[in-house]
Amino acid sequence: MRDYFSTHRDHHFVESLQWFTRLKRETPLRRLSLVFSGSVECSDVVNSAIASAAQHGISDIDMAIFGRMEYEFPWWLLSVCRSSALTSLCLSHCKLSVPLDFGGFGSLTKLVLVQMYMSLKEVQVLLRCCTNLVSLHLIGMFDIRILRLPKLKELLLLMTPSLGKFKVDTPDLQRLEYCGEMLPTSTFQSIPCLEHVSLQFTDDIYPEYDADKLEDISTCFPHVKSLCLRYEIPKVSPTFWIFSSVVLVHHSSNLFFSAASQTKNSCHLFKPQSPNFEHRYKTFG
């Protein structure tokens, strides 16, 4: 039975989704969430479902592809007149080829892109049109050096390569999650309203330098309520293992710093220069 469904999964997916295109326009729909193989057989019925969703004024589309990345999300089915109700778009492992004169998705307040088959220019054009974004998630995407989104409050950048200065022109940003290479301290000076910060750095060359940078970065968030700083350091031939972390708590605010290491000389603990935190050091070894 398992082999049968594995072999005929696209066929059954198509049959199960065809009912969606036959729904009456008056049927209230809010969200369309699909995970499929990206095959040609599935793509046709998926595009029909998206067109039907646009006619129903759907507000949330979540789509993920596994297996093939040839599938291209049909943004043209969500024309300016139809996409006014679309406020959330989550796409994973597919193509999104927008032209230079693209002008859609202006109503989006949330955009999630996960390992999309897009050029850096296409990502820039897309973000330029999403002027009302409140939440932006970029995971495994091209390096975006400049973000100008005045209404953005939440930014998540994971496994995104970064080299040099990263400019974030988002004065109202409150939550930031980042995983990648170490960023200059000046990066965080342009976003003073951050309340929740999680930074994971993956540098593996100068751990002592990175520890000093973390201490500097910890002073860049005057309004922070929760702060998590973590960096990875290279593996060496250890004489023993030791893991260190520091936890700082003040009422509802909290800060967490961890440095995973293999030798005692690689452990770095610091006390942030902020009077708003009580501190408590923890060492495990």
TrEMBL record:
Every At1g61320/AtMIF1 LRR domain range: 30-230
Signal peptide positions on this chain: none
Pfam families: LRR_At1g61320_AtMIF1
Protein name: At1g61320/AtMIF1 LRR domain-containing protein
Species this chain originates from: Aegilops tauschii subsp. strangulata
Lineage per the UniProt record: Eukaryota, Viridiplantae, Streptophyta, Embryophyta, Tracheophyta
